[in-house]
Write a structure and sequence with these properties.
CATH topology of the largest domain in chain A: Rossmann fold
Number of domains of chain C: 1
Distance between the termini of chain A: 47 Å
Oligomer: heterotrimer
CATH class of the largest domain in chain A: Alpha Beta
Structural class of chain A: alpha/beta
Largest sheet of chain A: 6 strands, mixed
Number of helices of chain A: 17
Chains: A alpha/beta (514), B mainly alpha (359), C mainly alpha (310)
Helix content of chain C: over 70%
Order of helices and strands of chain C: HHHHHEHEHHHHHHH
Radius of gyration of chain A: 25 Å
CATH architecture of the largest domain in chain A: 3-Layer(aba) Sandwich
Radius of gyration of chain C: 20 Å
Chain lengths: 514, 359, 310
């Protein structure tokens, strides 16, 4: 196997922050090379440089021994580098074919020839065992299908080297297996793969070699066969990490949230999933984790419980109170704490200061305001207290929310929502995009509240998170709950099958462990 | 960290961006004035003289500042809720119409009753005309830009219709109303400069806008929705109500601009009574960075501009349209100033790169 | 009643409707290009006005109507260049930029009108001869309505299928649509987002300028202060109404053009309606149509958001 790619001393600085510090790595022909690191380690930046999206401040890139300058993705594509981004670079209202041939026109060929392109796509994808429908609109495709389209898009442009950025975060375990088969097929046909991830299981599973990055620097490149998860974890984080947080066994109390026959239909949203009539309940001292691949109705469920949308049918009660006529404000009044999916677009008002954001759910209550006038001294005191208690950094009450880091923004949201000691907590993707430290903090917080007596509805696409925190696990698929299991006895394979829509009746019989 | 002179200059420019925008616009305007065959230096001298040089000039400046300040506050208030109120012209017409009609209908009432009533009516008239597009935008996401602009024309022509018909003066010559009853006039508070009470009211309005937006719960809601509607709604803030209210107040302030003109200066309602104050409000608000203090300063500036160009037109024969050119150029330069921080960052990086030796 | 209708809807009426929609069509189609690439353009009004003046000035000084039209398109594009610069390079607020263009255009056109022709005089320029299309122009009723116009009118209606073709059948059209929906995705396949947006904004300025030139050189053969009178905004309403598709936008323009034709027709039929209410009518109709029939519109997903490359 020859060397296909060499990155030598690549350095990239953003406004004083060193994202990549003299990183060197090489990729051989026909290998699957994992690039491992935490959130913020610099993996995506490095690959964006390789794909021509960023220009390195130092170092050079060599392809097959020849130094190349990749000043744009077009250069990278022409040199045979294809990238599948974490957030797909597909255009929802266009068809698969249109997406794949995007940007391939020229002055010599100005007209679109969608039919012959579609044929080419079909035969190309069949040749690699990838199932795509050239005429489908991207917005109607499942996430796994969209990913396949991205791979075909790179193949169509003649990629030798494939870069995949966190490709499994949106897939069920079975779909991950499917993807890995595709990757092995690509490698068999002579392509090479760089696989960015922060999941150790996958590294051990699929890669030939792995390069570990930490804080923008190269830690080491090792052969996968010669290392272990523990060693990789240590290299990734720099210390021993504990995989499980202490979760005491508690007896659940009264039912706090009761959902029955919930039907939600978001007809004005493009590509949304209707809830068909689902039921669930969450009790005090209990975490109900909703597992499922993103886009199966989780947003709709969370939105309905929290009062953002009105259900078409069904009932939601919180501590006995029917939420039917209630808006978001009404639900908040029922002492519900909410951690939204998107902290920047939903959770915080970006141009408001930390203080202003902290009072967002109760600024009309005295003593925060009196007869419509805001009570600034009291607000300042409250802010100071909360900033200290939740260790929000930097501790400047006048700092604008949009200037804060992700972890601190999440802490701000937690401070706002959980300080009131809510009876019900609805948390959606609470640790998305956060590093290990912040993630640990949030897990501890949630479990503390669970111990205090809150009922927690946790919705997450990260299975490990679900297993870590939940007492019971429910799996959502296409707007329905396909099964609820006790976390203690839940079987990963079964959960994975449920996530993929394979109903319990259809699953292969499992041997009962004695 | 040593900062080179160009970076430091940029920081200064950044802090005084509105001033430079104004000066830049005047400089570019000077070229055009030269094209018109007039010596720019003479012209600008006459401009200053006309705007601030004499008591009557100052009076004219302040007189024009009043509707500009109201209009600027109106645009700024809506802007804080994320809305573009380009319908000021229509709102000020409808406000003036309602106020003028009230004044004519209840001409017998004494001043302490009639004047406030007329002002309130003007506020309400403009407010309703603004609230309608506000509701359309808040509930059905219909572009308030298109609806407000169309309602400008509808409002204008409706007022014109009344002035050619039901409200027309009894003589029937011109499309204008009767002279409004003395009890509804805004009294002159500075006789030498002929400045009327409207100036005080406008300044009070500016203070009021500040207090409402930054010290009350309602202002909190409006600003939250303006920053990010989704996040505001997630926290239980009523977005529709806030947006409609913001447009109502915005339109109301425009209505007061109209009232100030007809009650303080012209003393009757007539066709074409507004030389485009509604649109000027946009420039005033943006030059003042949509903050009441800035808006007040910008209003004085544009007031002086109008008064001054009025003078130049008389003395030097320069077309009055020049004032609008300067206004447009100022706005363009104000928008451009958004790029200054980026320019500064770019210079900083270039310097860091050459200093650090990374190639 | 029926007699009244036939008296109203004469061939001349339809011909007028076609004529009055023409400037709207030019401007609205231009607007589609800008908006589809992701740049909001409320400065169409100012670009139209600029074109109206430049067309007259150009025709006046060259003595040639066609040259005047060409100069109008260039002038409109230059105004659009300012908007493109502020929106794409500076990444400023696109609405404010458009508003600034409108103010500047009004000031500049009035200014130069006074400078060149003073207050009393009005410029007079050569216009275009009506070009009756052979055979089709002789058909009774339809011939007069549709096929006896000045060439610019035919150009406008030919522009509609051309625009559709470019947008949906060419590679560049696909690229520009993707830039308006998901600029980052377009960037990663090598499309130059900034250049595409610049080009589309310039196209919108040139076409709006053409629309303005039609008003001044094509229709009145002179220039009046603030001649566009809000047509740029009506064109904007039309393109939203038409869901950013050329054919539907043309239909919307025809609707609004018909409204304008109607208000001329009514006094001619000796119905006494206040002229002011008549002037109000097209705007009121546009507003009601906009409110009532716009429904749920989905603009290009990335519209109004400046694109940041790094």
């Amino acid at each position: 196997m020859g060397t296909l790619l060499q990155l030598e001393n690549i350095t990239k600085v953003f406004d004083g922050l060193v994202a990549n510090d003299r990183i060197s790595l090489d990729v051989r022909e026909g290998e699957i090379h994992a690039l491992l690191g935490e959130n913020g380690a610099g993996k995506t930046t490095l690959m964006n440089i390789l794909y021509g999206l960023y220009h390195p401040d130092g170092g050079r890139i060599r392809l097959r021994g020849e130094t190349v300058r990749l000043s744009s993705p077009k250069d990278a594509i022409m040199k045979g580098i294809g990238m599948v981004h974490q957030h797909f670079m597909l255009i929802p209202p266009l068809t698969v074919t249109e997406n794949i041939i995007l940007g391939l026109g020229s002055l010599r060929r100005p007209l679109l020839d969608l039919d012959s392109a579609a044929e080419k796509i079909s035969s190309l994808s069949a040749g690699y065992g990838l199932d795509v429908d050239p005429r489908a609109e991207v917005c109607n495709l499942s996430v796994g299908a969209q990913q396949r389209v991205e791979i075909v898009k790179a193949l169509y442009r003649g990629a030798d080297l494939f870069i995949l950025d966190e490709p499994t975060s949106v897939l069920t375990p079975q779909e991950v297996d499917g993807l890995f088969n595709v990757l092995r097929r690509l490698v068999d046909e002579g392509h090479s793969v760089i696989f960015i991830t922060h999941k150790l299981d996958e590294v051990m599973d699929i890669s030939d070699r792995v390069t570990v990055l930490r804080d923008g620097r190269l830690v080491a490149t090792v052969n996968t066969a010669e290392t272990s998860k523990q060693e990789l974890a240590r290299m990734m984080v720099g210390r021993e990490i504990v995989f499980r947080v202490d979760k005491e066994a508690l007896t659940p109390g009264e039912t706090v949230l009761e959902v029955s026959g919930l039907q939600v239909d978001m007809e004005d949203e493009r590509c949304s999933v209707a809830l068909q009539g689902m039921s669930l309940s969450v009790r005090r001292h209990e975490v109900l984790g909703i597992a499922g691949v993103g886009g199966n109705g989780q947003t709709e469920l969370a939105g309905a419980v929290v009062g953002l949308f009105a259900p078409v049918a069904g009932k939601i009660t919180i501590l006995g109170h029917d939420t039917a006529e209630r808006s978001t404000k009404g639900v908040i009044k029922l002492n519900v704490g909410r951690i939204p999916e998107d902290r920047q677009a939903q959770g915080l008002v970006p141009d408001f200061t930390i203080s202003e954001n902290l009072i967002a759910t109760r600024y009309t209550e005295p003593p925060l305001s009196r007869r419509s006038f805001l009570n600034f001294p009291f607000i300042a005191e409250l802010a100071k207290g909360l900033i200290g208690e939740y260790d929000i950094r930097p501790p400047q009450p006048a700092l604008l929310a949009k200037q804060m880091s992700g972890g601190n923004q999440q802490k701000l949201i937690l401070a706002r929502e959980l300080h009131r000691e809510p009876d019900l907590i609805v948390a959606v993707q609470p640790t998305r995009g956060l590093d290990v430290g912040a993630t640990e903090y949030i897990y501890k917080e949630l479990l503390n509240h669970r111990a205090r007596g809150a009922a927690i509805l946790l919705i997450s696409t990260e299975l490990e998170e679900i297993f870590t925190l939940s007492d019971r696990i429910a799996v959502m698929f296409r707007g329905e709950i396909l099964g609820i299991r006790d976390a203690e006895s839940a079987d990963l394979e079964e959960i994975g099958l449920l996530m993929a829509g394979v109903r319990p009746e259809q699953q292969p019989l499992r041997e009962m462990t004695p | 960290m040593r900062r080179n002179w160009s970076e430091r200059a940029l920081s200064v420019v950044l802090a005084l961006a509105p001033v430079w925008a104004v000066l830049g616009a005047l400089l570019l305007g000077a070229f055009l004035i030269a094209v018109a065959g007039i010596n720019p230096v003479d012209a600008y001298a006459a401009l200053l003289e006309g705007a601030f040089g004499s008591l009557s000039g100052l009076g004219l400046t302040l007189q024009k500042t009043v509707p500009l300040l109201f209009a600027g506050l109106g645009v700024a208030f809506a802007f804080r809720c994320g809305l573009f109120n380009i319908g000021g012209e229509g709102q000020l017409h409808m406000g003036a119409l309602l106020g003028g009609w009230l004044a004519l209908t209840f001409a017998g009432l004494p001043a302490p009753v009639l004047l406030p009533a007329v002002l309130i009516a003007s506020f309400i008239g403009g407010g309703i005309w603004g609230a309608i597009p506000g509701l359309l935008r808040a509930k059905w996401n219909m572009s308030e830009i298109i609806t407000t602009i169309l309602m400008n024309y509808i409002g204008f022509w409706f007022v014109s219709f009344t002035l050619h018909g039901p409200l027309q003066e009894s003589r029937g010559y011109y499309p204008q109303s009767e002279i409004l009853p003395g009890a509804s006039w805004l009294p002159i508070i500075w006789p030498a400069a002929r400045v009327h009470l409207g100036l005080v009211l406008a300044l009070l309005a500016a203070a009021g806008v500040y207090v409402v937006l930054w010290r009350t719960t309602i202002g909190y809601q409006i600003r939250a929705v303006g920053s990010n509607r989704r996040a505001a709604e997630y926290s239980g803030i009523p977005a529709v109500r806030s947006m409609v209210l913001a447009m109502f107040v915005s339109g109301g302030l425009m209505g007061l601009a109209g009232a100030a003109e007809i009650l303080g200066v012209q003393h009757r309602l007539s066709d074409f009574f507004s030389p485009g104050y509604g649109f000027d409000g946009i420039a005033v608000a943006l030059l003042g960075y949509t903050h009441p203090v800035g808006v007040a300063l910008a209003a004085v500036f544009f007031g002086g501009l109008r008064a001054g160009f009025n003078a130049i037109q008389r003395t030097e024969g320069l077309p009055l349209a020049m004032a609008q050119v300067v206004q447009g150029l100022t706005l363009i330069l104000v928008v451009s100033s958004v790029a200054l921080p980026r320019l500064r960052a770019l210079l900083r990086r270039k310097e860091a790169a050459s200093a650090g030796g990374v190639d | 009643m029926l007699a009244g209708l036939t008296e109203f809807f004469t061939a001349a009426f339809f011909a007028a409707a076609v004529r009055l929609s023409t400037p709207l069509i030019f401007t609205a189609i231009g607007g589609i290009f800008s908006e589809r690439s992701g740049v909001v353009n409320i400065g169409l009004e100012g670009m139209m006005l600029t074109g109206a003046f430049a067309g007259v000035a150009g025709a006046y000084f060259t003595g040639n109507a066609w040259l005047g039209v060409l100069i109008a398109m260039v002038a409109g594009a230059l105004m659009a260049l300012i908007h493109a610069f502020l929106s794409v390079t500076v990444r400023g607020n696109q609405i404010v930029s458009g508003a600034a263009i409108n103010i500047l255009a009004l000031g500049l056109t009035t200014f130069f009108l006074r400078v060149f022709w003073g207050i009393q005089e009005k410029p007079r320029v050569p216009g275009f001869a009506v070009w009756k299309i052979p055979v089709l122009g002789d058909i009774p009723f339809i011939g007069e309505a549709l096929f006896q116009h000045i060439p610019l009118v035919y150009l406008a209606f030919l522009l509609v299928p051309l625009a559709h073709f470019v947008l949906f059948r060419t590679s560049w059209g696909l690229s520009l649509r993707s830039v308006g929906e998901h600029p980052r995705a377009a960037d990663t396949v090598g499309i130059n987002v900034l250049r595409t947006r610049y080009m589309c904004v310039l196209i919108s300025g040139a076409l709006a300028g053409l629309g303005g030139a039609f008003l001044s050189v094509g229709q009145l053969q002179t220039f009046l202060e603030n001649m566009s009178a809000g047509r740029g905004f009506i064109a904007l309403a039309a393109l939203i109404f038409g869901k950013w598709m050329p054919a539907r936008t043309m239909a919307a323009c025809l609707l609004f053009g018909s409204a304008q034709a109607a208000i001329v027709r009514i006094p001619a039929l000796n119905y006494s309606v206040s002229p002011q209410l008549l002037s109000m009518f097209p705007y009121l109709l546009t507003l009601l149509a906009f409110i009532g029939l716009v429904g749920k519109t989905t603009p290009p997903a990335a519209i109004g958001t400046p694109y940041v490359k790094e």
